[in-house]
Specification:
The protein is of the alpha+beta class. It folds into 3 domains: 22-70; 81-165, Penicillin-binding protein 2a (Domain 2) (Alpha-Beta Complex), CATH 3.90.1310; 171-498, DD-peptidase/beta-lactamase superfamily (Beta-lactamase, 3-Layer(aba) Sandwich). Helix content is 37%, strand content 19%. The protein is built from 17 helices and 19 strands. It has helices spanning 28-70, 74-77, 117-120, 129-133, 135-138, 145-154, 169-179, 210-219, 229-232, 242-252, 288-293, 297-306, 309-318, 344-351, 361-372, 408-423, 481-498, and strands at residues 82-83, 87-89, 94-100, 106-109, 158-159, 162-165, 184-189, 196-202, 262-264, 267-270, 273-276, 284-286, 376-378, 383-387, 393-396, 401-404, 437-448, 451-462, 469-475. It has a 6-stranded mixed beta sheet, with no helix packed on it. Strands 8-7-19-18-17 form a 5-stranded antiparallel beta sheet. β10 and β11 (273-276) form a beta hairpin. α12 (297-306) packs across α14. The protein starts with 27 loop residues before the first helix and ends with a helix. The structure holds zinc ion.
Length: 499
């Protein structure tokens, strides 16, 4: 029977019977003997107390970090006794399982090949994704005592626990095929729970053949196919960052933001930095919502010049730029570099999501979800629960509020502008499909060692009054958000609402 090593009694403690025979009292030898005994007893008591204290300390304070450290040592040493458990969705779809042949040889199998590659991960040649993060659970067994005794008697291995994920296989497949041959990522989540419904990263790999492909995968640094771009890819956010710049403006003008007015002439120059609207468009006279839904760069560059850099930075950091996200998923920190001494040009580029700002797709999905959820950020998670091989729940994860970031008024205004974007603005292709969308496109220009291009972004949620789904899509070198990321999002939303 497998036992939790942290709950086991400390080994090596023998409870010795100490002779305290009262008859021996009185004689000098007896006193000496008693004194030695009581010293020994006290030493024993103190040592025992220290040991107990240590056990309590480990259980209370160090259990989590020990558990993590134990992942690759204790858990892997369990492989002599435990068959690595399945990873499944809530409806029972198997994403990873261990096949055992008649000679008891084991093969880890991934029925969806590349579709869940990064999120589920691999368990040979090292470990990644859920295979790494949930290694301890997959290699532990809470199967019934009867099953464990039977396994022990027959010399067979006992079945490891299952990890049940919140991912939806159909939505994942839609997102995977919708991204097509683009490099990039898709994250789909529930704004009011933080549950991840789909997470795709490309280029990808087939975890079934990772052993054969390994040398190619690690030597091809240009495509970095092993990297989970959804959680670890750092991209310029482009105009999707205008959601945050808008909040900066709302906080600077809580009473009169609706008086904002800007006449876009297609370009704005300050010092040696010239900001133009995408495709040399001239947007003319706009209010704040119009500038947002047209994704007008000159309007937002002007807002960037006006905002107090430190307050702008505070807002970005409230949204967890330069911080870890509240999740157990492995991920990169997004970057926001503007400081109080940053020059005008940097203020302008930062306000339109260019400059030095970098963000992960998971983070953009979380920011979008927070706006959709009335300003409350939920902790993102994709493990619904751990269960034994006979289906008994061992550990259940529940939605958890991380923090309130916007007031309902602030999230309401930004949602309204996003709704306008998806009705008549740059994401208008999402209107008239039977569901209502609020969103923001981005066309993020990059210059990497002289190589330039434009990444296509879309972030949004649906339905507008009652959001159940939030999406972040990035297609590398996909051009404008409207041309590539929006049609990808539409396919995902169609599947979400119509199956
Ligand atoms: Zn403009």
């Amino acid at each position: 029977m497998k036992r939790d090593p942290l709950m086991d009694e400390p080994e090596g403690i023998e409870v010795r019977k100490i002779d305290l025979d009262p008859k021996k009292e009185g004689s000098p030898a007896g006193r000496k003997h008693n004194m030695e005994l009581s010293i020994a007893a006290w030493i024993f008591v103190v040592l025992f107390a220290l040991l107990i204290g240590r056990v309590v300390f480990i259980n209370v304070f160090e259990a989590e970090s020990l558990r993590n450290n134990l992942n690759n040592t204790k858990a892997d040493s369990n492989s002599e006794n435990v068959i690595r458990g399945d990873i499944r969705t809530l409806d029972g779809t198997v994403l990873a399982t261990t096949l055992v042949d008649e000679n008891a040889n084991q093969t880890r199998s991934y029925p969806f090949d590349n579709v869940f590659a990064h999120v589920v991960g691999y368990a040979s040649n090292g470990k990644s994704g859920l295979e790494a993060e949930e290694n301890y659970s997959l290699m532990s067994s809470h199967s019934s005592l009867l099953q464990q005794i039977r396994a022990q008697e027959s010399g067979e291995k006992v079945q490891g626990d299952r990890v049940i994920v919140t991912l939806d296989a159909k939505l994942q497949q839609t997102a995977y095929y919708a991204l097509g041959s683009y490099s990039g990522a898709v994250v789909v989540m529930e704004p009011d729970t933080g549950r991840i419904l789909a997470m795709v990263s490309k280029p990808d790999f087939n975890p079934n053949t990772i052993g054969i492909e390994w040398e190619n995968l690690v030597s091809d640094s240009s495509s970095s196919a092993l990297l989970n771009r959804a959680t670890q890819g750092l991209y310029p956010p482009g105009s999707t960052f205008k959601m945050i710049t808008t909040l900066g403006y709302l906080r600077a003008h809580p009473k009169d933001y609706s008086d904002f007015s800007w006449n876009c002439e297609g370009a704005l120059t300050e010092g040696d930095v010239r900001i133009t609207c995408y495709g040399d468009q001239v947007h003319g006279l706009e209010d704040l919502g119009g500038a947002f839904s047209n994704s007008c760069n000159t309007a937002f560059a002007r807002i960037g010049l006006e905002l107090d850099n430190e307050k702008f930075r505070d807002i970005a950091q409230e949204f967890l730029f330069n911080h870890s996200l509240p999740t157990s998923m492995q991920h990169s920190q997004s970057v926001f570099r503007l400081t109080k001494d940053s020059p005008d040009g940097e203020q302008m580029t930062t306000a339109i999501g260019q400059g030095d700002t970098l963000v992960t797709p998971l983070h953009m999905a979380l920011i979008t979800s927070t706006i959709a959820n009335g300003g409350i950020m939920m902790r993102p998670y994709y493990v619904d629960h751990i269960e034994s091989s006979d289906g008994t729940v061992v550990k259940q994860n529940e939605p958890e509020i991380y923090r309130k970031i916007l007031t309902p008024d602030e999230s309401g205004v930004i949602s309204e502008y996003m709704k306008r974007t998806a009705e008549t603005g740059t994401a208008a292709a999402l209107s008239g499909n039977g569901y209502t969308v609020a969103g923001k496109t981005g066309s993020a220009e990059y210059d990497r060692d002289g190589v330039t291009g434009t990444h296509s972004w879309f972030c949004g949620f649906a339905q507008t009054g009652d959001p159940h789904v939030a999406i972040a899509v990035i297609a590398e070198d996909g051009g404008t958000g409207s041309s590539t990321a929006v049609p990808i999002a539409k396919q995902i939303l169609d599947t979400f609402f119509y199956g």
